[in-house]
């Protein structure tokens, strides 16, 4: 069994095994013609249930054959141009190179003595990101597992900086279309049930700053503490970007921590054409970026950045066996001092290899392409009488619904749209997402694949209309 341990004597086995895996995936990619096979849980579960984990196959090729059956063949493929659903991106190859290296070396980024160069590379990427944002000379941050964790950590720092033990008095302000991790974080941070003040959005799904000003004033009048404002730079549902400069002014006036959740919109940091859409982000006290959304990085790759490095001390704890306090004075860089995690992957390496191979402009160009595609998709939808489209895109999201002129029953239209999404998923021809707007069911394209064309968008719209029409036709038959 020692032959399975990676070391100097097994290097050849390592090369062979991983190459076999890479060959399989490459062959699979070449043969993929749909984003999904449409497999159901009931069809797939028995295949996985049927495998006895206590009876190994002892053979890589056999394991890969089995994997084909239980996973690869029916996986949902983000690289397919007709995958248009969630905020998951196709990945760039230079990042996969980094991924292959980091898992084999298996550095852990909690301490210098488990990573060495990895620590310095992560720090340099944090500095690079902070500079792109414009956070100033005292900025710092750390890689995290995702936007959810980044938001949690940012709000932890905000809670500590609010400097009160009366947790029930703390308030967080966020728009009604902010990410649900804001609510989860408030709960985890021990705040009261009314801690998150949900604010309305304008016609473009951007936080209403008049309402924010009113609520901040009310908060102060009521003797409560405005702990943080969460501005979303790219809402998950619409890609809408809250008015960052106005929010920054209000935060300054009320002495409130400004957190910018740019999990989605961070791609604009490398944009060659649309960087100005997130102007004002430089005023933030903390920023969430998800490289695994708009930097085309594999999951996980995310970071939280802060304007003032000193605020990260709120996440600092010392353990004699790991990061004793004296190491701070010895200037040994232990990233665990800044992180909620302990053992932590060297995810930063993926971004490093990406920047070194493609350059930041390369990433920005890809993101610009999907933003431009969304603008074209919006024109298509706006001109198509079969569809109602919600807002002109600020990033790469389109929210719309099928609304046949002949059908006036809103519940029927809801059901037709729900049906179309499900039928499309079951067919595997395309994958789209859904959400609710004003209590009604809508469909959603999150465009993150530069390979997707307006032709794909038009074809998927036709498929949606076809499924919806068929559903409405059948329900008319049933009624008559
Ligand atoms: C996706 C998203 C998150 C959560 O990020 P994860 O990486 O999925 O944890 C937070 N905020 C916004 C606006 C998002 O779109």
- Widest sheet, order of strands: 1-7-6-5-4-2-3
Task: Assign an overall shape.
Answer: globular
What letter string, H or E per element, gives the SSE order? Answer: HHHHHEHEHEHEHEEHEHHHEEHEEH
- Assign the CATH topology of the largest domain: Aspartate Aminotransferase, domain 2
What binds here, in terms of ligands, is:
pyridoxal-5'-phosphate
Query: How many strands in all?
Result: 11
Describe the biggest sheet? Answer: 7 strands, mixed
Average pLDDT confidence is 96
Number of domains: 3
Classify the secondary structure makeup into a structural class: alpha/beta
- Name of the CATH superfamily of the largest domain: Type I PLP-dependent aspartate aminotransferase-like (Major domain)
Q: If helices are DSSP runs of H or I spanning 4 or more residues, what is the number of helices?
A: 15
GO molecular function, one term: pyridoxal phosphate binding
Family: Belongs to the group II decarboxylase family.
Cofactor: pyridoxal 5'-phosphate
Modified residues (N6-(pyridoxal phosphate)lysine): 293
Please provide a written account of the structure.
- The chain has helices at residues 11-31, 41-49, 60-72, 93-105, 117-133, 147-161, 181-188, 209-221, 244-254, 291-294, 326-329, 348-357, 360-382, 410-427, 454-479; strands at residues 140-144, 170-175, 196-199, 225-232, 257-262, 286-290, 302-306, 387-389, 397-402, 433-437, 440-446.
- The protein is an alpha/beta fold and 480 residues long.
- It folds into three domains: 2-75, PLP-dependent transferase-like (Up-down Bundle), CATH 1.20.1650; 107-346, Type I PLP-dependent aspartate aminotransferase-like (Major domain) (Aspartate Aminotransferase, domain 2, 3-Layer(aba) Sandwich); 358-479, Aspartate Aminotransferase, domain 1, CATH 3.90.1150.10.
- The strands form two sheets. It has a seven-stranded mixed β-sheet, with helices on both faces. It has a four-stranded antiparallel β-sheet with strand order 8-9-11-10.
- Strand 2 (170-175), helix 7 and strand 3 (196-199) form a beta-alpha-beta unit.
- Helix 4 (93-105) packs across helix 12 and helix 6 (147-161) crosses helix 7.
- The longest helix is centred in the last third of the chain and has 26 residues, at 454-479.
- The protein starts with 10 loop residues before the first helix and ends with a helix.
- Pyridoxal-5'-phosphate (PLP) is lined by residues 87, 146-148, 151, 179, 181, 232, 235-236, 261, 263-264, 290, 302.
- One of its GO terms (molecular function) is pyridoxal phosphate binding.
